[in-house]
């Protein structure tokens, strides 16, 4: 069933909820990478005037009225109180409903477009991308159309420079506390869990820099290599193989892990030069 038809019941319910200003499909169903088992991500934008109490009441009503009773229904996920997960009645397709205020979306764009500040955590422009590329399913007064138009703003050079300067410092051997040096240290100490954790942070930082170098908005946590191959004009020639080898080296606690990272950073520097 087409997404628009599947989501029609929730759109109809939102019309009757003054707390909801707009909604858009995000994630794999907006990027073209959805698979049969993929859930449907939806950003639900709440009116700034809506109180927390009103918003929570509305979320419970949506779940009570529309969720499939035979499947798990969660309002305010553990660790993610802004998100609800449930399947629409008579379907087995889960919705990942993320509730944001209008002010949050506007502030998110301000942080990237005006303040030119990276996002802590390694996906500096992922929310910007979700706001820009979400497929609208409801827009009460045209606010969503306006903010998506603003989100079409070209990638600021200052933001690109800031991300690259910070991230390259965290990737290479020069900074004693870089993620690269932390990985080498914990491998030498035989701490396999820490090695995996720090390698993941290194990769998060690497891809954040790679997307920034190309002035491509970060797609989030999943299918990063595929996004690079699809959208980045400038990229390392053996990116997929290098990532797989790095992951294998780190898991094996190999002493060559640091050298692998250094080679990937050299490739990244060449990408930065070509894409300047």
Short description:
By secondary structure, the chain is of the alpha+beta class.
Enumerate the strands of the largest sheet in spatial order, edge to edge or round the barrel.
3-4-5-2-1-6
- With helices defined by DSSP (H or I, 4 residues minimum), what is the helix count? 13
- How far apart the termini lie comes to 44 Å
Estimated structural class: alpha+beta
Stretches with pLDDT under 50, minimum 5 residues = none
- What is the CATH third-level topology name of the largest domain? Beta Polymerase, domain 2
CATH architecture of the largest domain: 2-Layer Sandwich
Largest sheet: 6 strands, mixed
Strand content: 5-15%
CATH superfamily of the largest domain: Beta Polymerase, domain 2
Order of helices and strands: HHEHEHEEEHHEHHHHHHH
Mean pLDDT score:
96
Task: Give an overview of the whole structure.
- 53% of the residues lie in helices and 14% in strands.
- It has 2 domains: 3-150, Beta Polymerase, domain 2, CATH 3.30.460; 157-274.
- With 276 residues, the chain is an alpha+beta fold.
- The protein has helices spanning 3-6, 8-15, 28-31, 52-66, 102-114, 126-133, 143-150, 157-171, 179-188, 192-213, 224-231, 239-251, 257-274, and strands at 20-26, 40-46, 74-77, 80-87, 94-101, 135-139.
- The mean pLDDT is 96.
- The protein has a 6-stranded mixed β-sheet with strand order 3-4-5-2-1-6, with helices on both faces.
- Strand 3 and strand 4 form a beta hairpin.
